[in-house]
Amino acid sequence: MDSTVTLTVDGTSHEVDVDTRTTLLDALRERLGVHTVKKGCDHGQCGSCTVLLDDRRHLTCLALAVAHDGATITTADGLGEGDDLHPVQQAFLNHDGYQCGYCTPGQVCSAVGMLEEVKQGHPSHVTDDLKADVDLDGDPDDSGMVDDEITERMSGNLCRCGAYRGIVDAIREAAGLEPRQDDARVEQEARP
Amino acid sequence: MKELTYVRATDAAEAVAAVAADPDARFLAAGTNLVDHLKLGVATPGTVVDVSRLPLAEVEPLDGGGVRIGTNVRNTDLAVHPLVRHGFPAVSRALLAGASGQIRNQATTGGNLLQRTRCVYFQDVTTPCNKREPGSGCSAIGGFGRYDAILGASEACVATHPSDLAVALAALEARVVVLGPDGERRVPMTELHRLPGHHPERDTTLAHGELVTHVELTGSDLALRSTYVKVRDRASYAFALVSVAAGLELDGDGEDAVVRDVRLAWGGVAHKPWRATAAEDVLRGRPLDAAAVREAVDAETRDATTTTENAYKPAMLRGATTAALAALAGRDLA
Ligand SMILES: Cc1cc2nc3c(=O)[nH]c(=O)nc-3n(C[C@H](O)[C@H](O)[C@H](O)COP(=O)(O)OP(=O)(O)OC[C@H]3O[C@@H](n4cnc5c(N)ncnc54)[C@H](O)[C@@H]3O)c2cc1C
Ligand code: SF4
Question: What is the least distance, in Å, from the CA of A48 to any CA of chain B?
Answer without folding.
Answer: 11
